[in-house]
Structures are given as structure tokens and as C-alpha cells.
Automatic annotation (TrEMBL), chains A, B:
The keyword DNA-binding applies. Residues 4-59 form the HTH lacI-type domain. Residues 2-49 form the HTH cro/C1-type domain. GO terms for molecular function: DNA-binding transcription factor activity; transcription cis-regulatory region binding. InterPro entries: Cro/C1-type_HTH (IPR001387), HTH_LacI (IPR000843), LacI/GalR-like_sensor (IPR046335), Lambda_DNA-bd_dom_sf (IPR010982), Peripla_BP_I (IPR028082). Keywords: DNA-binding, Transcription, Transcription regulation. SUPFAM superfamilies: lambda repressor-like DNA-binding domains (SSF47413), Periplasmic binding protein-like I (SSF53822). This is Transcriptional regulator, LacI family. It holds the Pfam family Peripla_BP_3.
Length: 345, 345
DNA sequence: TTGTAAGCGTTATCAG
DNA sequence: CTGATAACGCTTACAA
């Protein structure tokens, strides 16, 4: 498959490459109707397709951005990706998606590769463990925005949920309905995963603020695969809380699985609120009360901030954006201690 | 932000660009220990990063493939994308993801753009409406594989579910358990969306084969937003079937929503089987009997076939791969007409 | 209004 | 073992 190049078109149309180039870049203002047509015909005839790689080399811009996610199967990821893709589409950008699998090594390698490929900017759901690499990028003024997680000390744009508020929303809702023994389910808090810390800490503080007991046993913070065990142990000992706050969709799934396996009734025996408005929340029985992240808005904002940086690399003031969660009241948490008839919610 | 190039490294190391190039491509066989070290040091010192764009221009290969999906929020898409990404990762390829939104125009534009960007191949979840464009690619021997849907007349690799079998699996399961009035829920059958046709037709044929009545009213084939209405109309008229086959995750959600709104009992009043093993199938009440697509295997296969084509463009025999669905028996369809105690499944 | 020629940062082909 | 030198396909001054 002989690639046809600009030179071929030029030859056929009897003009020079530069004229063809002008044509392609729609600068036909100073071009005779005549030549324009000849070029158009030549292009048509040869089935010419410009080679953007060559152009990129010259222009030093690829109209491509990279997105590195740490968990491509996470619901938040999918939705944010969707928003980013859409925003890019509008501006003629393309998106290279890479999955770091929450492995800092992989993440580092991807950043390097993507930059070698000359992407115009990077949106990262950071593992949090490559502060040096991130820092280098901001020093070089390479367009960068973090999303979902941020990295302390690295002065870059970050798009985050107001995690503390999300936790408070859950606790307050429970508290106002008479729940006292409230637990949280999360992966282990580790210092470089900020949202996790904020959600767990926010939960603790909200509890304190409401004057509710803080019981260590009710902090189920262990890796996803062990959550079942932990929950089972509590249950067996008869010390299960009355309400549970699941800090994301993955932990929610574990909680639901546990509940199902043990024939526990929601919300009567155990009330549930989770962050992330899972797609089946409204068809589940009972319907699930959740705290939604504005995923679409977040993705869009991330893209916008990136474009801003790309447009004027120099004086960009990095900023942290906290998005407010939305409380979606459904049926998995209700007034406590009220006898009601059995109903489908 | 002066980009440091190979020339800079060469100068600092006191060698020529070609030598540096050799070094970068790990051809140090014929290189003195001495120069190698000098180059390494120079690279280190300058923080040199190769520019892959330049290399691509020369080598005519970008180590990048494009994936065009028609619905980025569909569960199948997410999972297949994950598999593709992983396969690419292993071979050092990158993936540009684009969403055609099932709009042929957009799809066409994307194909063009991506090819202009010199991607080494394309994996497409086709809208089905751009036969001419697809055809041109196969004629040019441009690496291409279709997934999920295929395009009649276009001789390209296609990775598909055995849709007929999937439908038969559902019908047989229902039939063997005494269900007679079985319906299907799907978007409208249109000739260019093959899996839809195959699933609906497969359903019809399986019904015939089992000697079950084929009732027009039980073919609920309308756009997603109208499914509720359609279902409601049937329900109001008292002619709701005993069992429903949902042809994908999106239609399943509609069915579940309807059921929930009308307090219908699964499986006693209405049994359900769907294609796509939704993530909440095992925590739903009752648990959901589904027909899973081997999404991961399909994505992997798609990538493999594409790499095969990329490796030896010339003699590639296009092939259609039919993947067998897996029946996952859970609780949303049971023996019919048997009184059982109420149980949590 | 159009052509010439010099890059862009690599790789590849040959000499040396 | 190393170095010139010519591509790769396009853009962009600068001429004409």
C-alpha cells in the first residue's frame, strides 16, 4: 500500500507542496479558485490522507492527551473517562487511556511513554506514589491534572470530591434517624490515598460532632477480599452495627454480598449508605440510598483545566476543585426503631 | 523548556547522533564500553527523553492502535476495553479510545482521524452503517477487527458472541422448567445491527423448536426509553408473559425497573434471564440468572488478531470468531408452578 | 498567488 | 566501532 504523500498531490495538481499545505490548512484566501480546484481533484483522485505524525513533528503538538487511571473497572473511572472523551471530542483531541492498576511502577512507565509520544497533557488518577515524577512535570510546566486523588506537595490542578462532606452527609442522615452504632467499610487507610483518608477521617469527625460513640470494631478497614471475613466475625460475635457507611462502589458490593449471604434485612437490621451512585441503586430491593459523585462534571472540569494549561502554559495557577456530593435518599436507611408494615420500597 | 534532543546528547557525549541512536535502540554490540558510558551519562545529565513522534515518522509505525466503541457506558465495552488495554500493555502498544455514540458520521470521522494519526490498526465496535469505509480498509489491508457486531459483506476479522446459542440457552432453560408464555425485551431489530437480529431471531427459532407459542405481543422490541410504556401496557391488559428474556444489560435494567415499580415477584410472577452478567447479579434479590459473554476472552482475541495483522499484513485470512456464552444459573428463573416457601435466594 | 528551501528529531545506509 | 548524510511527510518563512 503505497502511501500517497503531499508531494504526489502537488505533482498531480501541478503546484508545490506548500500550496497543497496551504490548501489543507484552509488558508485559501490567497489561492486562485483554479488551483484550489485542481488540488481538490488531485486529492480526491489519489485518495490522499494527510499524515498527522509529520505535522506533529513540525508543530510540536499532537492534539492527543493521555489519561492514566488506577482502576479501569471502577465505576467512577468509566464515567469520568466518558466525560473526558466527550470534552476532547469537541475540541478535536484524542485520548490515550492507560491503566496503571494502582502500580506505581507501571504508572511511572506510562507517564514516561506518553510523554515520549508527545501527548499535549496528562490527566491522572494517581497512585500517589510517584511524587518525584509528578513534581518534575509541574516544574517543567507540563500540562497535568489530577483527578479523584491528589498528591500533597505537588502543586497541580486537582479535581476532587468533597470527601469530608460526603462522610458527614451519611453520618448526619443516620444520626438524625436515630442510628447510634454506625460503622464504616473501607480499604485500609494509607497516607498516600487521600480520599480514603478523608472519608474515614470525615466519618470519625462527623460521629464525634454528633456525639456518637466511636467504636474501633465498627471501623472495618481491610483489603476488599477480607471484608467478608471481617464482617462475618463481627456478625458472629453479635456486635454488628445498626448502620454501615460504604466508602465506594467496591466496598458496597462486599457489604451487599455479605448481607445477602446472611439474610440480613435492610434497613431494619442494618441500614446502608454508600458513596458512588451505582447504576442498580434504584432497582435494588430496597432501593439504595447513596451519595453520588458528580462524575460527569468532574471529568469535564478535568478536561477543561487541562486545555487551559495547554493553551497558555506559562501563567497557570494550579487549583484544587472540591466537588460537592449529592445525597440521594432512597430506601436503604430509614427512621430507626419505628415499626412499619413490610413494604417494597 | 528547551527540549533536549539527540543532537544535544551527541554533542555532550562527543559522538554522532547515529551512535546515540544505536545506543537507544540497544544495539550496543559494536559499541565500546567507553562510549556507551559517555552516552549514558550525557542522557542522564540532560534528562533526555526520546521523541517517539520523530521515530514514528521514520519507521512508519506508531505502536498505537485505535478503538472505536459505539457506547462507552455499556458494560461489555468497559470490560472488552480492559482486556484490549491489557493485551496492548504487554506488547508496548497504546490505545486511543473514541466513542462514536452509534453515530455513523462520527464513526467515519474517527476512522479518518485515527488513520491520519497513523495508528497501526483499528478495533471497532461498528455502527454498521459505514460499509464503504470498512471495505476500503480491508482492501488496503489495513489491520482491522470488528467486535460485538459485524458487517455483512466486509471480509474482516470479527469477534462475536454466539447470539443464537445465547437465546436458545434462555429459551431452553425456561421451557424445561415449564414456562410457556415467554417474551423478549430488546431495542428494535434493524438489519445492520447483527447481534440484535440474531438474538431476537434465535429466540423465535428456539421457541419454535420447543413447540412454544410465538406471540407477537411478547416481542417487546422498542427503543430503550419506551420499554417501560410497552411493558406497562401489556401488564395493564393482563397479558404479561410468565418469563422474559432481556437481550442485554440495558434492557435488563428497564425490566427490573418496571418490575420494581409494579411490585411483581421474581421469579414467581415473572421469571427473568438476561444476556450480560451484570456485576450486581449475585447480590440482587433474587439473584439474577444470566448468560455471560466471555468479555475478557473476546477483548483479548480481538487484540491478538489485530497484532497478527499488524505483524504480517499480506496474507491474513479474515475469520469470524463466535464465542460461546456461559449460562449462569441463579435465582430469577425457577421450576414453574411449584409452590415453594418464601426464601431468600 | 505560488514556489523554494530549511527545518522538526529520529533512523538507516554506507563509508571509514 | 563510529560518523556523514539522506530520508520520513509536513509546515513555514522568505522569495519570486
Amino acid at each position: 500500500m503505497k502511501k500517497v504523500t503531499m508531494a504526489d498531490v502537488a505533482k498531480l495538481a501541478n503546484v508545490s507542496k506548500s500550496t497543497v499545505s496551504q490548501y489543507l490548512n484552509k488558508r485559501y484566501e490567497y489561492m486562485s479558485e483554479e488551483t484550489r480546484k485542481r488540488i481538490a481533484r488531485a486529492i480526491e483522485e489519489l485518495g490522499y490522507q494527510p499524515n498527522i505524525i509529520a505535522r506533529s513533528l513540525k508543530q510540536k503538538t499532537t492534539m492527543t492527551i493521555g489519561v492514566i487511571v488506577f482502576n479501569i473497572l471502577h465505576m467512577l473511572t468509566t464515567q469520568v473517562l466518558h466525560a473526558i472523551e466527550e470534552a476532547c471530542q469537541e475540541r478535536g483531541f484524542h485520548v490515550i487511556v492507560s491503566n496503571s492498576d494502582d502500580d506505581p511502577e507501571k504508572e511511572r512507565k506510562y507517564i514516561e511513554m506518553l510523554r515520549a509520544k508527545q501527548v499535549d497533557g496528562l490527566i491522572i488518577f494517581p497512585t500517589g506514589k510517584n511524587a518525584d515524577v509528578y513534581q518534575k512535570m509541574v516544574e517543567e510546566r507540563f500540562p497535568l491534572v489530577f483527578i479523584d486523588r491528589m498528591v500533597p506537595g505537588v502543586k497541580a490542578d486537582a479535581i476532587l470530591l468533597d470527601n469530608q462532606k460526603a462522610a458527614a452527609l451519611a453520618v448526619e442522615y443516620f444520626a438524625e434517624r436515630g442510628y447510634k452504632r454506625i460503622g464504616v467499610v473501607a480499604p485500609p487507610p494509607v497516607s498516600h490515598i487521600i480520599p480514603r483518608m478523608e472519608r474515614i477521617e470525615g466519618f470519625r469527625q462527623a460521629l464525634a460532632k454528633k456525639g456518637l460513640p466511636i467504636v474501633d470494631d465498627y471501623f472495618i478497614t481491610t483489603e476488599i477480599p477480607y471484608i467478608q471475613n471481617e464482617l462475618a466475625r463481627l456478625f458472629a460475635s453479635g456486635r454488628l452495627p445498626e448502620a454501615l457507611f460504604a466508602i465506594n462502589d467496591l466496598t458496597l458490593m462486599e457489604v451487599l454480598y455479605f448481607i445477602k449471604g446472611n439474610h440480613i434485612k435492610i434497613p431494619d437490621e442494618l441500614a446502608i449508605i454508600s458513596i458512588d451512585d451505582v447504576p442498580f441503586a434504584h432497582v435494588y430491593t430496597p432501593t439504595l440510598t447513596t451519595i453520588a459523585q458528580p462524575t460527569f462534571a468532574m471529568g469535564k472540569k478535568a478536561a477543561e483545566r487541562l486545555f487551559l494549561q495547554i493553551a497558555k502554559k506559562s501563567e497557570h495557577q494550579p487549583q484544587i476543585f472540591r466537588f460537592s456530593p449529592t445525597f440521594i435518599e432512597r430506601g436503604s436507611a430509614k427512621e430507626k426503631n419505628v415499626i412499619r408494615k413490610r413494604e417494597v420500597t
